[in-house]
Amino acid sequence: METVDTLRLFLTDSEKEAILTSTDATVKRFRNALERRVTERLATPGLQAENPAPGRASLGWWYPAAEYLSDAAMQYALTPTDELANWLRSATLYIARRPASDWVGPWFRDHSQPFTGHLETAHLCWGVSAVLDLAGTVFTEAEWEEVGEALSEKGITLCRRWLQKNNHLANWRGILASGALVASATLGREDWLDELTPALAQMAHAFQPDGSYGESLQYGNYLANALMLAYESLVRKYPVHARQLDIDAYGRGMSWLAQSMLYRKPMANWGDEPRARAVNFNDSAALFRPSGDLLLHVAVRSDNPVQAGLARWLFQDYYEPCPTQGPHDLATFGMRNDWGFLTLPLLIPQSQPTSPQKTGLPLTTSFSNGHAFMRDAWDGRTVVAINGGGDGLYGPGHLHGDLNSFILVHNRERLLVDPGHSCYRNLIHGLESSTQTHNTCTFLVESESLGLQEDLAKASLLEQKSVLPRRLLVNGIPGPPIDRGNRRRVVEREGLVSVISSDVGSAYGSPIQRFTRLWLLAGSHVLFVVDRIEATQPVTTVWNWLVNNRDGKAQVDSPGNGLTVCRNDAGMKLFHTGSGRSGHPIYGYVHDAYHVEPDQLGEGRPGSGLLYRWTETKPALKRTVVHAIALDDAFQLDQWQLQSNDAAFTLTNGPQHWTLRILDETASHLSLTSGQGQQWTIQQHDEIYTLTRQYPHG
After folding, report:
1. Which domains does the chain possess?
2. Any idea where the Heparinase II/III-like C-terminal domain is (predicted)?
3. Is the pTM of this model over 0.85?
């Protein structure tokens, strides 16, 4: 006779028993948090999202469906009650009885016939499947058949139709394939599993070889989370199919995730609880932590002990201190990630956390997708995160014109920021994706007699190309990675000095031939940014600096060729040494979190980002320009000054000083000298720089 263990996809009898009898403090804490979450949910009939902020509309029922249903189903499997059974039955039948047009998604999805699935369709498949698998006894036999038929005809059929109509490799393909696969496993349709498992396995090729992801941090998590759900739906009942899926494709990306995390602390408008911040290039959000279930899945399923240990450490650092932190209604779809219904069974196997320090993650490093990082120390004072040189993108999409842009953090404050992204249906989305709103350069290719700074910025503006061709599947084989035009020139660290360089000139196209940027971080307090720009015809360079003013607390002064920024206890003093002239700030945007609908919590207001620009006074064919940046406690900032003559630039506060020398006009040979006389040289050969520490003789 078959046991219950062989029937359930997501929870075996032994796992259930272990959860219910566990004396482990972490398991008990998350079990209590799940019960509390579900109990609070029962107070609201149906699938209405959590209460919106004052003045904001209620949201569609599609968005929280997967989270609400799966959480309640797991709670019912562990501790069934009549009240919970009634809620699950009512909510699931509501979805099952909606017309197929509703399974397509909200109004902004394509509703032309024959209906095709979208992200919402896959999420409904996940949620309904969890209920049928974990709480199927809440239905009569006839109701179970009705829900199963809806899952098949309105869920799987629409997801498969999308897969048949589209052939590009990106997160959407993984989400739709996962939705169809999980539903097929729930219904026991092994014929569809035979079709869908290889299709989902292809999604391993969307990740970069080192586990990073080309679209963005959050879309990489979204795709990996979908692959995790598919694997977990197979591993207990269909292990042969599960073995076709490559956990390591995204599991090896834990190093990238760990490098991308910044800190936890409260955020204005989000309550008093500390919240995770992360590096947010492309369509990503500053409020980010990897999905909890995904981290535990890698921790217990990965064969790589380093990546498994990092995954468990990330869960320990970003979830264990705050198991009840919300909002939970957009945990995956809205990308305000949370832990979910699989956390409890995945907490049962033993897994050991390993911190980045113990793992030996480098302080200066880069990844295949172009992200690069410089830190003074783990848990130190300064982080420089760069979108620079990389390899071809295996899963391109959702890109910004942000190459050679960077995020600057000091004393746990983001000083120079990426704008992030808001609702795709906002008119400003195109602008917040453009080069001019990032910490990089734009170019004016026409010189006109325009008077005001803002008029000059409206001349013919040359920005990076960020809309790339899709990577297509041809006869089931992925095409070559997509070249974005960003070239890595160096990523090295010697002692207190780190250097990263990339050239992104080809991302702009003609007439730009070269835009090579070098970042040199010296200790915790000094950053030099060196730009070498060349063009085939004279162009006017504009340097853009986006200051974090999301809460209105930035104190900014921009006298002459300087920019001073203070936020709480952190300060930055930037010196421009080129021929550019600055104007008054442009009121830009800095977003906390993405939302599927406009005017929601997390969307920045005008002035949440203060955009400062230095514009050259006349066009040129070539130039080398240095920006010197001092970082310190806000009250110490006035002590830092820049001394410069010829091609030597010294940042000093008296006790400390660092001198950068540009030793030739092409910036292919540089030196950096500390106040103690230690010297480093940076020299270019065949377009690649090397960093060498000079040791005194004797």
Report:
1. 13-47+63-106+114-348 (1.50.10.100), 364-694 (2.70.98.70)
2. 380-593
3. yes
